[in-house]
């Protein structure tokens, strides 16, 4: 059994943004040399998410609207958390979208279903944040 760990760093241009990070994760897998096992990819910040979905701009727009309806950013005063910060909505959005994904590794490749890709979801951005990639296998 072998283990490989890497950190990926991202800084978004906007407060809220979705980024397809599949190529970066695939590069981690290649560097690991692991061909059979499990890959964990998780956001290491409480206002960011890693999730799997389709790489389709309409869907991403729908996700953004849906999340904003569930946890609107403003008014900031609606949240008890927003005493020294103004990011309570980002914490809630992360809770909805999740912290991590686990993907099987088969034949040295991510074993995805049709259209699946890995995304980094940023909900309180414009600063550098990290994502952990941990791969275990042979």
Structural class: alpha+beta
Largest sheet: 5 strands, antiparallel
Element pattern in H and E: EEHEEHHEEEE
Name the CATH class: Mainly Beta
Number of helices: 3
Described by the principal axes of the CA atoms, the overall outline is: elongated
Strand content: 35-45%
Count of extended strands: 8
Residue share in helix:
25-40%
Radius of gyration of CA atoms, rounded to a whole number: 16 Å
Termini distance?
Answer: 5 Å
Strand order within the widest beta sheet? 1-8-3-5-6
Number of domains: 1
Task: Kindly report the oligomeric state of this protein.
Answer: single chain
Structure summary:
With 138 residues, the protein is of the alpha+beta class. The chain contains three helices and eight strands; from the N terminus they run ββαββααββββ.
Describe the SSE topology.
Elements: E1 2-10, E2 17-20, H1 22-32, E3 36-43, E4 48-54, H2 57-70, H3 88-97, E5 100-106, E6 109-110, E7 116-122, E8 129-137
Antiparallel strand pairs: 1-8, 2-7, 3-5, 3-8, 4-7, 5-6
Describe the structure.
- With 138 residues, the chain is α+β, with helices and mostly antiparallel strands.
- The chain has a single domain, classed as YjbQ-like (Jelly Rolls).
- The protein has 3 helices and 8 strands.
- It has helices at residues 22-32, 57-70, 88-97; strands spanning 2-10, 17-20, 36-43, 48-54, 100-106, 109-110, 116-122, 129-137.
- The strands form 2 sheets. The chain has a 5-stranded antiparallel β-sheet with strand order 1-8-3-5-6, with helices on one face.
- It is elongated and about 50 Å long.
- The model has no long low-confidence stretch (mean pLDDT 97).
């Amino acid at each position: 059994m072998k283990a490989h760990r890497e950190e990926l760093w991202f800084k978004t241009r906007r407060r809220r943004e979705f980024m397809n990070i599949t190529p970066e994760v695939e590069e981690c897998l290649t560097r690991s040399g692991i061909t059979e096992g499990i890959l964990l990819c998780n956001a290491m910040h409480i206002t960011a998410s890693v999730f799997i979905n389709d790489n389709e701009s309409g869907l991403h727009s729908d996700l953004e609207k849906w999340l904003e309806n569930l946890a609107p950013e403003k008014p900031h005063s609606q949240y008890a958390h927003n005493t020294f910060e103004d990011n309570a909505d980002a914490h809630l959005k992360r809770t909805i979208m999740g912290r991590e994904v686990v993907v099987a590794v088969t034949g040295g490749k991510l074993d995805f279903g049709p259209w699946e890709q890995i995304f980094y979801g940023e909900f309180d951005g414009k600063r550098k944040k990290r994502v952990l990639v941990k791969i275990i296998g042979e």
